[in-house]
Structure formats: C-alpha cells, structure tokens
C-alpha cells in the first residue's frame, strides 16, 4: 500500500470516528507540543553557540568581541544566498499576511529557516530576540500540518494562533499571556471554540518546556515590595514615559528600515549594518544578544554588572552617570535591533522591547529616588512595570503586557500599577500611531485583520472571486449595426465595455443607452459606438484597490456594475449583487 493511499484511509477513518471539535482539540495538543519542542530547540542551539564563544578565545579578548555580530550576520547572509536562496521575512507580519491573504497557508521553508538563521544571529550577539523566529517556525509547522489534514481556512488560522501561543508559553512559561497574545495580535475571536484549543496548546507547550528545561525561569525574581497608593502618580509618569518611548521605538524602526531599503545589495546592508552594530556594542556592551542577563541584573540591583565593561567605568560611582548609560541603552536598543534586522539578521522585537522597557523603568525609579525630594520607590518593580508599559505601547497589546509581566515575575500583587502604566502607554501610542510595527505594512497592502468583523471579512475576500469576464468588448469605431450584430445579439448582458485596439478601457455602453435607436436602420451605418459610450461613475483598480475600497466605491457611486482596470487594460466587471453575495458568504464562514 502506497503512503498516499494509507494517508487517505487515515483521513477517512478520522472523518468517521472523530468529530471536528475533538479533532481540533487533538491538533491543538500536538501543535502545542511541537511549538514547545521548536522553542526549546532554538533556545538550546543559541545558548550552545553563546557557550562556545564564551569559553573560546574570542570573548576572552574583550577588545574584539564586538566583531562577533558581523560574523553571525555574514553566516546568515551565506545561508540565505547559497542555501535558502530566498530572503527572510519578519515573523509576525508574514504570519498575519498569510492569515488574511493566503488562507492561512505559510511556506514550508519557514519551518526550518528561522531555526538556522535566528541562532546564528542571536548566538553571535545580534541585538534581537528568539521569540519571533520560534513563532514563525511553529506557525509554519501548524500550517503545513493543517494542509496535510485538509483543514479549512478558519481551522488553519486557529492552529496558527495555537502555535504562537505555544511558542510564547514555552519561552516565558506564561500560558495565560500566550493565549491573550494570540487573541490581541492575531485578532482571533474570543469564543469557547477558540479559547479551549489555545489553552490546550499553551499548557502542552509549557509542560514540554518544563520537561526539557526543568523549572528554570527567564527572570530569577519574585516581587517582594507591594504596591502602595502613594506611588500611583509615579506609575502614571512611567506610563507616559513608556508611551513616548514606544512611539520612538516604532519611528526608529520605520526610519532605519526605510534607509536600508534604499540599499539594493544585501552585501552592502551587511557591511554597513554590521559595522554600525559593532560600534554600538563597543560603547554599550548590554546591547549584545537578547539581553535577558541585563534585565535580571537590573531586577537584582546589580547595576554595574548590568552595564558591563564600558569606556565610562571610572565614572560609575556617580549615580547620574549610571542613569545616563541606562538612558543610552534605552535609546540605542531600538537602533541596534532594527539595524540587525536591516543588515539581514533574523529575530523578534518582543524581547528587545522588554530590555528597553526594563532600562527605562529603572531610569525612572533612579531619578525619583535620587531627586533629593525625599521620595523612594522600588527600582525592581519599576523595572518590571517598565517592560509592561513598552510592550503595551509597541504592540498595542496592553492585556498581553500585563499578564506577561505578572506571570514571569510572580507579580500579581502589582496588577494595579501594571494596569495603570500599560493603559497609559497604550493610549499615548494609539493616539499617535494608528498601527504597529507588525501592522503598518499590512495596512498599506490592504491585508490587515482586526477585531472589526466587517473590515476583517472584507480583508479576507479576494477580488478575483467576484470579477466577471463574460462581457463582449466593443470598439469606438464600430458602427451601430455591427454593435447590434456582434455585441447585443450575442450577449446576455445589458452592458458592454468599450476598448481600443490595445485593450485600453475607454468607456461603457448600457443597453438602455441605445434602446431608443436600436431599431432605426437609418442609423446603422452613420453612427458609431463612440456616439453612445460614456465613462462609468467609478473604476476599480485591480492592483491598488482593497476590497474595502471596492465596497466604498460602490456605495459612493451608487452603481450596480463597475469596470476593473488591470495594468491600464480592461479586465472585467464587478457587480454589486455578486459582491454582496460573496460578502455574506464570507461573513457566515468567519463568524460560524
């Protein structure tokens, strides 16, 4: 028996004996386990590279360690150019695009691509995180598995959400935050049908992480100082600070990305980006790698250890020099992260955001404590809550930020300040930037899914499915007689596109336009199509108009049919009735 026949028999058995609901639960369990394994594997490979470099000769020579990120980026460049032979994409935006425009289908190469490039980037000191690549690889595995098992688009989308939740739960050991992340960032419906699979995937992934890594945690810290009401104003100040910093984070990302996009050669990006990263690391060593060690040192109050060896070591007895260096980390972490991406590295933005937020929170606490006004706040608590504030602003995901920091620190006692800071940061960023690093590019492509069901349904719709092409084309120089003979007599439509010899659309004729003269034979030879044609009330641009724009054009024009123009040529028509029928069908599929 061939493998294909055996697989078909397994599928048939599944259809007969396992309900769709239970099948999704089973798949979510499997995907959670796989996401946990992938996350553990990526972490261990990266830590292995770091351990080799730390024990080797390279890092013992402190003067050349900043060259390592360039080496890592060069290895990634070689892999991309000569093995993968395709550019790497940013994890979350690529997944969101697959959900909205590719029916949840993710290219299979994404299963292994991040597993190779992310450890090379981060292990050699690239200033990015491992969470994004873990999510990308896990999501590709879930998409491929869903395709093999013939799941529909909605189920594949849910399984991708399960994969992302599993990756976060495994890395941070925070299953609740993982579920909320999938709902907030991937715009999944908060229903029992989606919540339970996400929960199963998160729990199974956490168990996998515990099995391989034991009870070790990223942050070896527990909250010891409770929230006191007199500190409320300071947490509001921190929320404002993280909100402004999150705007800076996003704008720096877009600016540096735009600059590097002007460089056409990947080799140029590597050289310029590598040198820039090396220079930043020389003066600010904590920018090296992910930065978990930096965060832990700040939480434990080891400021000098967190800052590492810098040219400013003789001045660290002055607390304001320490504060200035922490501000430098806050500023340059976003620059180092974006430069790593732009130079060709692979990674995620969530962990760099945590690093930047921890530095900013610690700075705010130190300024309050050393202002000479007699105030005293917990620097560790502000370090934690600064992370939540920046995550909330950068990702537009305040609930994810609150529960993530609460879970990884055991700091549920800090729920009130977490909510204050996260909400303030979110409000400030949202009122300034409508979209995040993840969603801006998708918005420009008309491929962004949101919690707004109407807009999401329009985003999921495909223009090709509503274009009709069974129209007889007329030409401006055709006589009325030829038009009746070759057009009206052979068509069951009441409208006709008019095109020139090169296929350019020049006008439209409705049957009503010629109804009063179509039986007047004296006009058959003396009048032409050009006499009766006119411009339609609106055009649909195939390459530029989203489905939301198409719907708006129908609404504003009041037309029942609009022509579609592709590459300046006539391509077909869209009718309002077919568009609304397709919308209703998609809405039923989306909400069922």
TrEMBL record:
Bilayer topology annotation: Multi-pass membrane protein
Pfam family, any one: Voltage_CLC
Keywords in alphabetical order: CBS domain, Chloride, Chloride channel, Ion channel, Ion transport, Membrane, Transmembrane, Transmembrane helix, Transport
Keyword Transmembrane helix set for record: yes
Main localization, broad class: membrane
Regions that span the bilayer: 23-42, 62-80, 111-136, 156-183, 190-212, 232-249, 270-288, 319-336, 348-368, 380-405
Localization (cell): Membrane
Residues in CBS domain copies: 467-525, 533-592
Gene3D superfamilies: CBS-domain (3.10.580.10), Clc chloride channel (1.10.3080.10)
PANTHER family given in the database record: CHLORIDE CHANNEL PROTEIN CLC-E
Entry protein name: Chloride channel protein
Organism: Winogradskyella pelagia
